[in-house]
Specification:
Helices cover 24% and strands 33% of the residues. The chain has 347 residues and is an alpha+beta fold.
Protein backbone atom coordinates (compact mmCIF):
# COMPACT_ATOMS: atom_id res chain seq x y z
CA UNK A 1 0.00 0.00 0.00
CA UNK A 2 2.87 2.33 0.88
CA UNK A 3 4.44 1.75 -2.53
CA UNK A 4 1.16 2.53 -4.31
CA UNK A 5 0.84 5.81 -2.40
CA UNK A 6 4.41 6.71 -3.38
CA UNK A 7 3.62 5.91 -7.02
CA UNK A 8 0.52 8.12 -6.98
CA UNK A 9 2.50 10.95 -5.42
CA UNK A 10 5.14 10.66 -8.14
CA UNK A 11 2.50 10.68 -10.86
CA UNK A 12 0.85 13.81 -9.51
CA UNK A 13 4.21 15.50 -9.00
CA UNK A 14 5.11 14.88 -12.62
CA UNK A 15 1.73 16.21 -13.79
CA UNK A 16 2.26 19.53 -12.05
CA UNK A 17 5.51 20.03 -13.98
CA UNK A 18 4.27 19.09 -17.45
CA UNK A 19 0.81 18.58 -18.96
CA UNK A 20 2.09 16.09 -21.50
CA UNK A 21 5.25 14.23 -22.42
CA UNK A 22 6.32 11.97 -25.26
CA UNK A 23 8.13 8.75 -24.39
CA UNK A 24 9.77 6.74 -27.18
CA UNK A 25 10.97 3.15 -27.29
CA UNK A 26 11.99 1.22 -30.41
CA UNK A 27 10.22 3.57 -32.80
CA UNK A 28 7.07 3.42 -30.67
CA UNK A 29 5.83 6.72 -29.26
CA UNK A 30 3.36 7.34 -26.46
CA UNK A 31 1.88 10.72 -25.58
CA UNK A 32 0.89 11.10 -21.95
CA UNK A 33 -1.96 13.48 -21.13
CA UNK A 34 -2.80 14.98 -17.80
CA UNK A 35 -4.86 13.05 -15.29
CA UNK A 36 -7.82 15.41 -15.03
CA UNK A 37 -10.20 12.53 -15.84
CA UNK A 38 -9.64 10.99 -12.40
CA UNK A 39 -11.91 12.32 -9.70
CA UNK A 40 -9.85 11.03 -6.79
CA UNK A 41 -6.65 9.25 -5.84
CA UNK A 42 -8.59 6.06 -5.13
CA UNK A 43 -9.97 5.95 -8.69
CA UNK A 44 -6.42 6.12 -10.06
CA UNK A 45 -5.37 3.23 -7.82
CA UNK A 46 -8.37 1.11 -8.81
CA UNK A 47 -7.96 1.70 -12.53
CA UNK A 48 -4.21 1.14 -12.67
CA UNK A 49 -4.04 -2.06 -10.62
CA UNK A 50 -0.39 -1.43 -9.91
CA UNK A 51 1.86 -4.37 -9.10
CA UNK A 52 5.44 -4.18 -7.80
CA UNK A 53 7.87 -6.79 -9.17
CA UNK A 54 11.66 -6.83 -9.07
CA UNK A 55 11.98 -3.14 -8.30
CA UNK A 56 9.54 -1.98 -10.98
CA UNK A 57 5.92 -0.94 -11.10
CA UNK A 58 3.87 -2.88 -13.65
CA UNK A 59 0.42 -1.60 -14.58
CA UNK A 60 -2.45 -3.93 -15.42
CA UNK A 61 -4.49 -1.34 -17.31
CA UNK A 62 -2.20 1.12 -19.13
CA UNK A 63 -5.22 3.20 -20.26
CA UNK A 64 -5.27 4.63 -16.75
CA UNK A 65 -2.09 6.51 -17.62
CA UNK A 66 -2.32 6.92 -21.37
CA UNK A 67 -5.55 8.29 -22.73
CA UNK A 68 -7.00 7.62 -26.16
CA UNK A 69 -6.26 8.45 -28.88
CA UNK A 70 -2.82 9.61 -27.82
CA UNK A 71 -1.22 6.16 -27.85
CA UNK A 72 0.60 5.67 -31.15
CA UNK A 73 2.14 2.45 -32.38
CA UNK A 74 3.32 2.30 -36.00
CA UNK A 75 0.69 0.34 -37.89
CA UNK A 76 3.08 -2.21 -39.37
CA UNK A 77 4.82 -2.72 -36.02
CA UNK A 78 1.53 -3.57 -34.33
CA UNK A 79 0.71 -6.12 -37.04
CA UNK A 80 4.17 -7.69 -36.88
CA UNK A 81 3.93 -8.13 -33.11
CA UNK A 82 0.60 -9.96 -33.29
CA UNK A 83 1.06 -11.89 -36.56
CA UNK A 84 2.97 -14.88 -35.07
CA UNK A 85 -0.17 -15.67 -33.05
CA UNK A 86 -2.53 -15.90 -36.04
CA UNK A 87 -4.01 -19.38 -36.03
CA UNK A 88 -6.54 -19.22 -38.88
CA UNK A 89 -8.33 -16.82 -41.23
CA UNK A 90 -11.97 -17.03 -42.26
CA UNK A 91 -13.52 -15.21 -45.19
CA UNK A 92 -11.42 -15.37 -48.37
CA UNK A 93 -11.75 -14.73 -52.10
CA UNK A 94 -14.23 -17.26 -53.47
CA UNK A 95 -12.78 -19.46 -56.19
CA UNK A 96 -15.87 -21.66 -56.12
CA UNK A 97 -18.44 -18.95 -56.85
CA UNK A 98 -19.07 -16.79 -59.91
CA UNK A 99 -20.61 -13.99 -57.84
CA UNK A 100 -20.24 -13.08 -54.19
CA UNK A 101 -20.31 -10.18 -51.74
CA UNK A 102 -17.37 -9.49 -49.44
CA UNK A 103 -16.97 -7.26 -46.38
CA UNK A 104 -13.69 -8.57 -44.99
CA UNK A 105 -11.98 -11.48 -43.29
CA UNK A 106 -11.91 -12.64 -39.68
CA UNK A 107 -8.40 -13.24 -38.35
CA UNK A 108 -8.40 -15.81 -35.54
CA UNK A 109 -5.63 -15.68 -32.96
CA UNK A 110 -4.22 -18.52 -30.88
CA UNK A 111 -6.83 -19.59 -28.33
CA UNK A 112 -4.74 -18.69 -25.30
CA UNK A 113 -3.23 -15.52 -26.66
CA UNK A 114 -5.81 -12.99 -25.47
CA UNK A 115 -5.67 -14.38 -21.95
CA UNK A 116 -1.89 -14.08 -21.88
CA UNK A 117 -1.78 -10.57 -23.32
CA UNK A 118 -3.91 -9.26 -20.46
CA UNK A 119 -1.40 -10.49 -17.85
CA UNK A 120 1.21 -7.78 -18.03
CA UNK A 121 3.58 -9.45 -15.58
CA UNK A 122 3.48 -12.62 -17.70
CA UNK A 123 6.99 -13.12 -19.12
CA UNK A 124 5.49 -14.26 -22.43
CA UNK A 125 4.79 -10.61 -23.23
CA UNK A 126 8.48 -9.82 -23.49
CA UNK A 127 8.47 -10.40 -27.30
CA UNK A 128 7.07 -6.88 -27.79
CA UNK A 129 9.17 -5.16 -25.18
CA UNK A 130 7.99 -2.58 -22.70
CA UNK A 131 7.54 1.14 -22.68
CA UNK A 132 9.41 2.44 -19.65
CA UNK A 133 7.99 5.49 -17.91
CA UNK A 134 10.30 7.04 -15.35
CA UNK A 135 9.25 9.00 -12.30
CA UNK A 136 12.05 9.98 -9.93
CA UNK A 137 14.07 6.79 -9.41
CA UNK A 138 11.21 4.42 -10.19
CA UNK A 139 10.29 2.74 -13.47
CA UNK A 140 6.80 1.89 -14.64
CA UNK A 141 6.56 -0.78 -17.35
CA UNK A 142 3.78 -0.74 -19.92
CA UNK A 143 3.82 -3.65 -22.43
CA UNK A 144 3.85 -2.60 -26.08
CA UNK A 145 2.13 -5.87 -27.05
CA UNK A 146 -1.03 -4.92 -25.20
CA UNK A 147 -1.65 -1.87 -27.35
CA UNK A 148 -0.69 -3.73 -30.51
CA UNK A 149 -3.35 -6.33 -29.66
CA UNK A 150 -6.01 -3.72 -28.91
CA UNK A 151 -5.44 -1.94 -32.22
CA UNK A 152 -5.13 -5.17 -34.20
CA UNK A 153 -8.67 -6.18 -33.19
CA UNK A 154 -10.05 -3.12 -34.99
CA UNK A 155 -8.10 -3.46 -38.24
CA UNK A 156 -9.68 -4.52 -41.55
CA UNK A 157 -8.47 -7.57 -43.50
CA UNK A 158 -8.92 -8.80 -47.08
CA UNK A 159 -7.65 -12.25 -48.06
CA UNK A 160 -6.94 -14.19 -51.25
CA UNK A 161 -5.62 -17.75 -51.18
CA UNK A 162 -3.70 -20.14 -53.40
CA UNK A 163 -3.21 -23.87 -53.19
CA UNK A 164 0.27 -25.05 -54.17
CA UNK A 165 -0.74 -28.68 -54.45
CA UNK A 166 0.56 -30.26 -57.64
CA UNK A 167 3.03 -27.50 -58.44
CA UNK A 168 6.53 -28.53 -59.53
CA UNK A 169 9.51 -27.49 -57.46
CA UNK A 170 10.65 -24.90 -59.98
CA UNK A 171 7.35 -23.02 -59.90
CA UNK A 172 7.21 -23.33 -56.11
CA UNK A 173 10.64 -21.73 -55.82
CA UNK A 174 9.72 -18.77 -58.02
CA UNK A 175 6.31 -18.38 -56.40
CA UNK A 176 7.95 -18.19 -52.97
CA UNK A 177 10.52 -15.64 -54.13
CA UNK A 178 7.79 -13.41 -55.53
CA UNK A 179 5.46 -13.82 -52.56
CA UNK A 180 8.27 -12.83 -50.19
CA UNK A 181 8.29 -9.43 -51.91
CA UNK A 182 4.70 -8.87 -50.79
CA UNK A 183 5.18 -10.13 -47.24
CA UNK A 184 5.75 -6.91 -45.29
CA UNK A 185 4.94 -4.53 -48.15
CA UNK A 186 3.73 -1.17 -46.79
CA UNK A 187 1.78 0.88 -49.32
CA UNK A 188 1.23 4.53 -48.28
CA UNK A 189 -1.92 6.44 -49.29
CA UNK A 190 -1.84 7.46 -52.95
CA UNK A 191 1.17 5.25 -53.74
CA UNK A 192 1.24 3.18 -56.94
CA UNK A 193 2.93 -0.21 -56.58
CA UNK A 194 4.48 -1.90 -59.63
CA UNK A 195 4.87 -5.63 -58.94
CA UNK A 196 7.30 -6.08 -61.86
CA UNK A 197 9.79 -3.71 -60.28
CA UNK A 198 10.08 -5.98 -57.26
CA UNK A 199 10.45 -9.09 -59.42
CA UNK A 200 13.49 -7.73 -61.25
CA UNK A 201 15.18 -7.06 -57.90
CA UNK A 202 15.36 -10.79 -57.26
CA UNK A 203 18.74 -12.18 -58.24
CA UNK A 204 18.92 -14.32 -61.37
CA UNK A 205 20.83 -16.86 -59.28
CA UNK A 206 17.79 -17.30 -57.02
CA UNK A 207 15.23 -17.95 -59.76
CA UNK A 208 14.59 -21.48 -60.97
CA UNK A 209 14.92 -21.22 -64.76
CA UNK A 210 13.61 -24.66 -65.67
CA UNK A 211 14.67 -26.41 -68.87
CA UNK A 212 14.72 -23.34 -71.12
CA UNK A 213 18.06 -21.87 -72.11
CA UNK A 214 16.50 -18.47 -72.73
CA UNK A 215 17.13 -15.82 -70.09
CA UNK A 216 14.25 -13.73 -68.74
CA UNK A 217 13.97 -11.08 -66.06
CA UNK A 218 11.77 -13.48 -64.05
CA UNK A 219 10.35 -16.95 -64.54
CA UNK A 220 7.34 -19.29 -64.35
CA UNK A 221 5.52 -19.24 -61.03
CA UNK A 222 5.52 -15.49 -60.35
CA UNK A 223 2.18 -15.05 -62.13
CA UNK A 224 0.60 -17.10 -59.37
CA UNK A 225 1.48 -14.23 -57.04
CA UNK A 226 0.33 -11.44 -59.38
CA UNK A 227 -2.97 -13.29 -59.80
CA UNK A 228 -3.34 -13.63 -56.05
CA UNK A 229 -2.59 -9.92 -55.65
CA UNK A 230 -5.17 -9.08 -58.33
CA UNK A 231 -7.84 -11.13 -56.56
CA UNK A 232 -6.96 -9.48 -53.27
CA UNK A 233 -7.29 -6.08 -54.97
CA UNK A 234 -10.75 -7.02 -56.20
CA UNK A 235 -11.81 -7.50 -52.58
CA UNK A 236 -10.23 -4.39 -51.11
CA UNK A 237 -12.25 -1.18 -51.60
CA UNK A 238 -9.17 0.92 -50.87
CA UNK A 239 -7.23 -0.55 -53.82
CA UNK A 240 -7.51 0.46 -57.47
CA UNK A 241 -6.00 -1.74 -60.15
CA UNK A 242 -3.95 0.62 -62.32
CA UNK A 243 -2.72 -1.90 -64.87
CA UNK A 244 -3.53 -5.56 -65.42
CA UNK A 245 -3.21 -7.99 -68.34
CA UNK A 246 -4.56 -11.51 -68.65
CA UNK A 247 -2.52 -14.46 -69.83
CA UNK A 248 -2.42 -15.27 -73.52
CA UNK A 249 -3.72 -18.76 -72.78
CA UNK A 250 -6.12 -20.18 -70.27
CA UNK A 251 -4.42 -22.23 -67.55
CA UNK A 252 -7.21 -23.99 -65.59
CA UNK A 253 -4.64 -26.10 -63.74
CA UNK A 254 -3.10 -23.02 -62.15
CA UNK A 255 -5.91 -20.46 -61.95
CA UNK A 256 -9.13 -22.41 -61.24
CA UNK A 257 -11.09 -24.60 -63.67
CA UNK A 258 -14.51 -23.22 -62.70
CA UNK A 259 -14.24 -19.65 -63.98
CA UNK A 260 -11.62 -17.51 -65.65
CA UNK A 261 -11.02 -13.83 -66.14
CA UNK A 262 -9.52 -13.12 -62.73
CA UNK A 263 -5.88 -14.01 -63.52
CA UNK A 264 -3.11 -11.43 -63.88
CA UNK A 265 -0.02 -12.02 -66.01
CA UNK A 266 3.34 -10.30 -65.71
CA UNK A 267 6.03 -10.53 -68.36
CA UNK A 268 9.37 -8.77 -68.54
CA UNK A 269 9.00 -4.99 -68.25
CA UNK A 270 6.05 -4.43 -70.55
CA UNK A 271 3.24 -6.62 -69.22
CA UNK A 272 2.79 -5.02 -65.82
CA UNK A 273 0.62 -5.45 -62.78
CA UNK A 274 0.13 -2.22 -60.83
CA UNK A 275 -2.14 -1.21 -57.97
CA UNK A 276 -2.75 2.02 -56.06
CA UNK A 277 -3.77 2.70 -52.47
CA UNK A 278 -6.65 5.18 -52.78
CA UNK A 279 -7.49 5.17 -49.07
CA UNK A 280 -6.51 7.68 -46.40
CA UNK A 281 -4.42 5.16 -44.46
CA UNK A 282 -1.50 2.89 -45.36
CA UNK A 283 -2.07 -0.69 -46.47
CA UNK A 284 0.13 -3.46 -45.15
CA UNK A 285 0.50 -6.89 -46.76
CA UNK A 286 1.26 -10.07 -44.85
CA UNK A 287 1.46 -13.75 -45.76
CA UNK A 288 -0.13 -16.52 -43.71
CA UNK A 289 0.58 -20.16 -44.49
CA UNK A 290 -2.01 -22.75 -43.59
CA UNK A 291 -0.46 -26.18 -43.65
CA UNK A 292 2.22 -26.94 -46.21
CA UNK A 293 0.40 -26.02 -49.43
CA UNK A 294 -2.12 -23.24 -48.71
CA UNK A 295 -0.89 -19.63 -48.87
CA UNK A 296 -2.99 -16.65 -47.78
CA UNK A 297 -2.19 -13.13 -49.00
CA UNK A 298 -3.65 -10.59 -46.57
CA UNK A 299 -4.00 -6.85 -47.10
CA UNK A 300 -4.58 -4.91 -43.90
CA UNK A 301 -5.82 -1.40 -43.11
CA UNK A 302 -5.94 0.35 -39.73
CA UNK A 303 -9.25 1.84 -40.89
CA UNK A 304 -12.64 0.32 -40.21
CA UNK A 305 -14.07 -0.90 -43.51
CA UNK A 306 -17.42 0.82 -44.23
CA UNK A 307 -17.80 -0.79 -47.68
CA UNK A 308 -19.17 -3.96 -49.20
CA UNK A 309 -17.58 -5.31 -52.38
CA UNK A 310 -19.41 -7.31 -55.02
CA UNK A 311 -17.31 -9.53 -57.31
CA UNK A 312 -18.86 -11.01 -60.45
CA UNK A 313 -17.04 -13.44 -62.78
CA UNK A 314 -18.60 -14.65 -65.99
CA UNK A 315 -17.52 -16.76 -68.95
CA UNK A 316 -18.54 -15.12 -72.22
CA UNK A 317 -17.27 -18.09 -74.21
CA UNK A 318 -14.74 -20.88 -73.77
CA UNK A 319 -11.96 -18.39 -74.44
CA UNK A 320 -13.31 -15.11 -73.10
CA UNK A 321 -14.54 -13.90 -69.74
CA UNK A 322 -14.88 -10.87 -67.55
CA UNK A 323 -14.54 -10.06 -63.86
CA UNK A 324 -16.29 -7.06 -62.37
CA UNK A 325 -15.79 -5.20 -59.10
CA UNK A 326 -18.48 -3.07 -57.50
CA UNK A 327 -18.01 -1.15 -54.26
CA UNK A 328 -21.08 -0.32 -52.19
CA UNK A 329 -21.49 2.13 -49.34
CA UNK A 330 -24.83 1.15 -47.93
CA UNK A 331 -27.25 1.26 -50.86
CA UNK A 332 -24.98 3.55 -52.91
CA UNK A 333 -22.73 2.21 -55.66
CA UNK A 334 -19.46 4.16 -55.31
CA UNK A 335 -17.21 2.34 -57.79
CA UNK A 336 -17.55 -0.09 -60.67
CA UNK A 337 -15.02 -1.56 -63.10
CA UNK A 338 -14.95 -4.54 -65.46
CA UNK A 339 -11.92 -6.38 -66.84
CA UNK A 340 -12.50 -8.46 -69.98
CA UNK A 341 -10.05 -11.21 -70.97
CA UNK A 342 -9.63 -12.93 -74.33
CA UNK A 343 -7.51 -16.09 -74.50
CA UNK A 344 -5.99 -17.79 -77.52
CA UNK A 345 -6.20 -21.36 -76.31
CA UNK A 346 -5.77 -23.75 -73.39
CA UNK A 347 -2.60 -24.98 -71.72
Amino acid sequence: MKRIIILIFLLLSWWTVSAKKVISLDNTSFLLNNFSSFSSLSSLKDKCKVKWISGQYLIATPECLITKPTVYIPFSKAVDLIWPFVQDIKGVYRLDQNEFFYTGANVILDSGFEKRVKKFWDQQLSWGGYMILKWSNSDIQVPVAYFAWKYFKNYSFWVSTKSLTGRDECRLTNYSLAMNKLDGLLLPPGKVYNFNEDLVKISQDEYCKGKSDRQYLFYAGVCGVSTQLFRNSLLNPFVRVVERRSHAHRYPKFYSPIVLGDDAAVYEMYKFFKIQNIGDAPLYFKVFKKGQREVYLVSISPQRNPFKVQVEKKNLSKLSAYVQKKVWSGADLTFQKKWTSVYYGFK
